[in-house]
Design brief:
This protein is mainly beta. Helices cover about 5% and strands about 40% of the residues.
Length: about 300
């Protein structure tokens, strides 16, 4: 009787997870694809493109983002074993053919202007993460008043050390923290107060630094690209929640690289406290400004 009972128990299929493979249209596995369930980050693919979806998410919509592939949303995917993404096509108008020779056009970028202060030890490009309760906004002025199209944003990230004991000065390096994801969005500029006013995108983008790179890239699709406003734009960054990092398998948020800049650097940092909600007051980040530091974050424009 016991043998029959055990046989019956082991014959019951125990399925708590659904294995999915994220792959390109050429059937190559995609590593580090971020899967959003109902627009919240829940999973990230491993080196084989595999993710294991919990049962409570089986009937929910999945959106997948990756730097080198177009964002795609899947519904009624439960019967599938593989979800395919379309590779992002680099625009041909970045290449000119002249006399059978290829000439790559220079892409216009807007970054904080570094100066000789950048070689000082305190400005050597390593920084801890922004606070978990803080959102950062960088103001990018449109000094040329040019009608350029914003194509991508680059956020430089790094590993960092955390002091565990002030007495012994023992520190612990947060290795591979630079690959942790971060949220990015854009805000319009308040014409009266010069602070962030309204979100450009209702849902923030989640980006992460890929292996062998020093920065995370937000690549806007053709439909998402927009004109650089004449009064400038704010780029905002903030960490994911602790729960989201745990869910995606990351222990720590990324460090955001800082550089030394001149006093007339036009890209100005602001911050606000997240616990105060969307109506929280934006403040000048005077600590960075007085130290003549800036986050190494830049905008790239379409030619």
């Amino acid at each position: 009787m016991k043998k029959l009972l055990l046989l019956f128990l082991f014959s019951i299929p125990i399925v708590a997870q659904k294995k999915l493979t994220i792959a390109s249209e050429s059937k190559q596995p995609i590593e580090d694809a971020i899967l959003l369930i109902e627009n919240l980050p829940r999973y990230i693919s491993d080196s084989l493109g595999h993710v294991y979806i919990q049962k409570e998410d089986w009937n929910k919509t999945i959106s997948i983002r990756h730097l080198n592939f177009n964002k795609k949303t899947f519904e009624n995917w439960i019967e599938k074993d593989t979800l395919f993404l379309e590779e992002t096509i680099n625009e041909l108008n970045n290449i000119e053919l002249i006399g059978n020779k290829k000439h790559e056009k220079l892409t216009h970028t807007l970054f904080p202007k570094s100066n000789l202060r950048n070689i000082l030890p305190e400005n050597f490009g390593k920084s801890s993460p922004i606070g978990r309760n803080v959102e950062i906004a960088l103001y990018f002025p449109n000094e040329k008043k040019a009608a350029e199209i914003i194509k991508r944003v680059k956020v430089y990230t790094n590993d960092y050390k955390v002091i565990e004991s002030f007495e012994t000065k023992k520190s612990n390096r947060r290795k591979n923290a630079k690959y942790s994801p971060i949220e990015v969005n854009f805000y319009t500029v308040d014409a009266v107060y010069g602070v962030p006013k309204e979100k450009i995108f209702q849902e923030s983008f989640i980006i992460s630094c890929q292996k062998n790179n020093d920065y995370a890239v937000l690549e806007l699709s053709e439909a998402e690209q927009f004109e650089f406003p004449s009064n400038g734009i704010f780029v905002t960054i903030k960490n994911l929640s602790t729960e989201d990092y745990d869910t995606l398998g990351f222990n720590n948020p990324p460090g955001i690289t800082t550089i030394g800049v001149s006093k007339n650097n036009p890209i100005i940092p602001y911050f606000r406290y997240l616990h105060q909600g969307e109506t929280a007051i934006w403040n000048l980040y005077n600590y960075l400004i007085e130290r003549q530091n800036a986050f190494k974050i830049g905008i790239e424009f379409k030619n």
